[in-house]
Amino acid sequence: MRNILHSDMNNFYASVECMLNPSLKGKPVAVCGSVEERHGIVLAKNYPAKAYGVQTGEAVWQAQQKCPGLVIVPPHFDEYIKYSIASQTEKLAIIYFGLSDDPNVNTTVGETVQVGKNKFTCVTVVDGSGGSHQVFVNVVSGECVSRSTFEELLGETDNQDSEEDTEAEQPIVN
Asked: Residue 12 and residue 21: Cα distance in Å, rounded?
């Protein structure tokens, strides 16, 4: 059986921008395309901007008419991808351990590491009773693996690398 996770994150781009630049907190913010390059539309807005009637997809000039104090920021897609992956891996880890109904669950997302052709992110999940669980999430496929399976994958990759190194070091004899 394959699980598909859909995470609808309202105002996500604007939320990431406000997190990265705390001086924007509480101000009406819109992430917009470039007016100079004729891509000047609102890609996302935060709740203060929404209160003025700013809408996703409208032209920047229209949004500024509705909200004269609107702070316009350019998109930073690499940041959005990074935080989107973190959110997905947290949710997958919670589902993996069957803790999605636990309101006291906490997660910590570690670094993403390359293992062969795959990328894995370590997620530590602490349940409501204080029990700690660790899982490694393949950020491409969404597959969750235990620490022991992850270590086996690391070992296989190390063995493949050393075999390739050994083959490369062998002299050619005619």
From this structure: 14
Q: Any idea which architecture 12-75 has in CATH?
A: 3-Layer(aba) Sandwich (3.40)
Buried residues in 40-57 as b, exposed as e (16+ CB within 10 A): bbbbbbbebbbebebebe
What was the pLDDT predicted at 170? 47
> How many Å apart are CA 161 and CA 149, to the nearest integer?
18
Sequence ranges of the chain with CATH classification 3.40.1170.60: 12-75
Residue 103 reports pLDDT greater than 90: no
CA distances from 45 to 95, 137, 144 (A): 30, 30, 33
Single pTM value for the model: 0.55
Could you give the 3-state DSSP secondary structure of residue 32? Answer: strand
| Spatial separation of the C-alpha atoms in residues 20 and 161, rounded to whole Å | 38
* Number of C-beta neighbours around residue 11 at 10 A: 19
